[in-house]
């Protein structure tokens, strides 16, 4: 166990984590270093295109097992179960208003692409293998939690408040069409799944064509992106107004709880070690790209500063630095 | 004046970018003939500070500028004040002189649109 | 008021970005002492909807803001109304109080430039 | 009007981007409840022409928009006119009608902040 | 023939076409997926720099034949002939006002760099070779059509209208200096030709230095750019107001007619198969970067939505998916 | 000597210089070619991250010599001495106001990262080697000149003026905290030093991971960036209003004088030839990213057009085209 952990934690001295730390410290110290918004978004698009495509190619090589179906269903189930759990914990430990509570819950039911990408590097460095289709599972886990969040927002509205809210909603409720679009046609879902299917269709031949783009510079681009993430996370933390201690604690224990659910589920459905580790990481991670935009639309009365700070400035750094190696080590012990 | 100008209303709206389509729909329904959304770099308000270099569009604002006649302005303000119960935002209305006033007088659409 | 302010005109112009240099020349000729072009993110008008994420600059707009005295405003409006026969655009003029009014009073240039 | 609006001041400031934090501090101290900085694409003034595609942030401007009540506007203008001795910039103030006027009345902070 | 066609159409399953389709379908389905404007423009700059430089290096290796001169003249002639043809067809089949008609004609006389770049990949995949100087020919074909369009706008103005227009123009006509700059110093002309000459000057040694930048990731970057093009094309199509059936039809048959001119010209002047295919593609393609900006300046009264929708949302997708393989197959049959 | 020079000047036909010339000529001729601001800034971030990281890795391989300390101190001393010299020359030869004079002096005491990067390529092409820690020396030389500039601004204020200025300053002086941040936490200092330390920590293993990102495309990205620099420099030159002949002359002779200081210092402290060449280039180069932003903050009354035009549009092109090979040749003769 000590060995497994110590191998896992060599991650701490990887360029990835170090560049993240550089950004984080720079912003904490109030350096003006910044990555232009368009560049950050471009790097995120690259990472999604590349990880989706590489997953697809590896599925084209390995063939599609029935495991994909089982794992996807498990992933979607986690995407509903985790928000319910998160919502309950938030109700018990914080005094967030009901809309913000539901919105936060949705973030934790969803996933973070960059956390997943960083985890694949750690898992590979530990000598573990994982199934290419885990990328598709990730894409499928991205948005169901949006629905879970909205249902929680409606169910949890207290009686009197509910009437007022009901009146509003008749007038200005977000139309279901808009919501469905956020869930099924969310930009990152479309890009991840699209690139995944293009990888399946073009297979190794496609990899020969665009491998030098999606493969060779991948880790370097991830480092630059993590530098940006570090800057953004620390700035959020510095400027966060409404962050109470119970909320910050939630940002640490919630990923651990969700990870437990994930590692057990992954082991039970019989995934191999690397894939269990990745399902655990997906469970533990919280969205900071796809879900925030959707929540702004669907629950505009929720406090955006809260859910962005929690997922981006608390849970993401925790997962990147401590969570990923920990989850991978546990997965190896349980499923290895 | 050598060129004749007409008095109109200049409405300026500061909202979260993800809500732009909702207010655009409001303008369309109220018969506003046009609007322009302007890019922002940051700001502060009751809910704290924000700046543009964020990955997620959730925390970005736009300033929407729309010129319309007084009747449209009144109708639009009424609608906006209802929307503001749910969607946060800031609105202000200024008198402005325009050329070609016929450009700014549209027909409100029926609600059944 | 503790600080004394002066009444000026605030002119706001919405035009296609490729035409910016044409209107800049107009300002220069009319003796306008400065202007600022602001970035836009999208809009609608009589010729439909547009948004910024286009490759070609052809379909992009800017909002140009220029502060000037009343005399310059009148001259500029006159010129703009002629230009609008060929170049599409929207203009509005608002009263505004400024500090340091001497900044905003320029000399028109002779037509022979 | 069906919705009741209140008269406020709309202050518009054009400054170099590196000075934004200095004016933001001024707003904060004067009790201005919010402001929005808008992106620019270029401009001209007494110190010549500039355009956005520069590497260094030194030569970039922002337009800052802040809505406030008349008392705050007067206080802010006074402060700005002192700052303008050292930091170049352009300011203008316009009358504007707003909804929810209580949003725009803040408390100035003590100087000992 | 069937064989040639079927080989050519393997293009349909290439990552390039699939990423374009992904973007197109995503935008049609109203997904919010988008590429930041600055990133799209950056990718376009990269593609022009790389294709220009690689063309120059291959000329440095092969030597400059007199064919370059002949082909350039032929290309410029096509750049004048095609707008005249297009203008006539538009007058006969549509009711566009005279300014918009002339502007559309200019777009079809010019070329699309990305269509050319995609075609070079298809031609290479078919095992054909082409001359490096075709890049220079492309650059030279980019802007003459702007002049053609302006001449058509003046000539075609009906008598009464003409007087009014004449009066305007005295007051506000675009100065010739501005126009000359658009034609000779247009951004993409300068970058393509500049990179081409730098390729010639630095030759294979230059390629050693910057090959890992202009060569290895080229296809991958093209894929990302085509994803963006798919998004932009479909959004234009969805939002297009003035697009009538005769106009849409023009967007399909006009490239076919122009391609016929191109393939015959290329064969007559004795180019080898790959180069004939590329000259055909250049003839068939319509500009959506260089010419729209120039037309906004020179013919501000023309309806920009019409010419942008036609060239970007109808003709570009048609050429990318169907046109390129078709033209390549025909070129092979005629000149092979 | 003739040989050394002629080898050094093969630099003139490198893709780097040619792409810079392309941008410069295009902008002089008023082409609208331009690189989006976000892309330019992204490329600059890449270059700093890559050069910093590669320097760190090479230190990890070579070990840290005590030379680093000596060279750093020498570099910082140059960063104070050069502004004093520049300030004196400006007072004698120009009629700049005292704030602008101090601001210009600060620019020349600092360094230009891209000039350094271009010089490493020339030095390598000449077959010379240099120490990896020169990157750290560069980072350390970036901002001390800001302090020198501010001290000069205060010292040089003439009596009467000083009183008025003093009164202002009591009211609105830039707080020392802000200044310290500009000096120690300036974005490029943080990124260069941060990437340098990450390179030391991760060593050759880190290079295996992100080498394909920081190494392979490096020269190509430098070319694209230099194209942008050419455009920006020529536009500044064209639009510069206050540029007098004595000022323009200063932009040429000042780098030569500073280079002399640098080459002598480097030789005296016993650096090897490549490193002497680089220290010379650092002395000769003037900042156009880090210092302008700091001066806007600290000396807002200085004329930004003057210092930007001088460093970006006069000294940078001069150094890139003539300076670098000249300094390298001299270094080789003195220290070789
Ligand atoms: N009433 C208006 N208020 C604000 N912006 C407008 C208005 N009308 C038009 N615009 C802007 O001007 C652009 C061109 O207008 P148009 O020529 O009517 O299509 C539109 O896309 C808008 O960005
Ligand atoms: N008084 C104001 N003047 C200008 N912009 C404001 C003002 N108040 C708020 N805003 C803008 O609206 C955004 C949201 O405001 P709030 O909902 O109060 O946090 C702020 O971040 C500002 O960009
Ligand atoms: N009259 C004006 N109207 C609008 N913007 C102005 C005006 N004067 C100056 N500016 C803006 O303020 C910047 C600095 O002005 P200046 O200090 O006069 O060079 C200019 O580049 C413009 O962007
Ligand atoms: Na999760
Ligand atoms: Na064509
Ligand atoms: Na220096």
UniProtKB/TrEMBL annotation, chains A, E, F:
Chain ranges passing through the membrane: 12-31, 43-62, 68-90, 102-120, 132-153, 183-204, 216-234, 246-269, 275-294, 306-330
Record carries keyword Membrane: yes
Highest taxon of source: Bacteria
Keywords, in A-Z order: Membrane, Transmembrane, Transmembrane helix
Pfam families referenced in this protein's UniProt entry, alphabetically: Sbt_1 (PF05982)
Cited InterPro entries: Sbt_1
Protein's UniProt name: Sodium-dependent bicarbonate transport family permease
Gene source species: Pyruvatibacter mobilis
From TrEMBL, chains B, C, D:
A GO MF label: enzyme regulator activity
Domain of life: Bacteria
Gene3D superfamilies per the UniProt record, alphabetical: 3.30.70.120
GO biological process: regulation of nitrogen utilization
Function in brief: In nitrogen-limiting conditions, when the ratio of Gln to 2-ketoglutarate decreases, P-II is uridylylated to P-II-UMP. P-II-UMP allows the deadenylation of glutamine synthetase (GS), thus activating the enzyme. Conversely, in nitrogen excess P-II is deuridylated and promotes the adenylation of GS. P-II indirectly controls the transcription of the GS gene (glnA). P-II prevents NR-II-catalyzed conversion of NR-I to NR-I-phosphate, the transcriptional activator of glnA. When P-II is uridylylated to P-II-UMP, these events are reversed.
Protein name: Nitrogen regulatory protein P-II
Organism: Pyruvatibacter mobilis
Lineage of origin: Bacteria, Pseudomonadati, Pseudomonadota, Alphaproteobacteria, Hyphomicrobiales
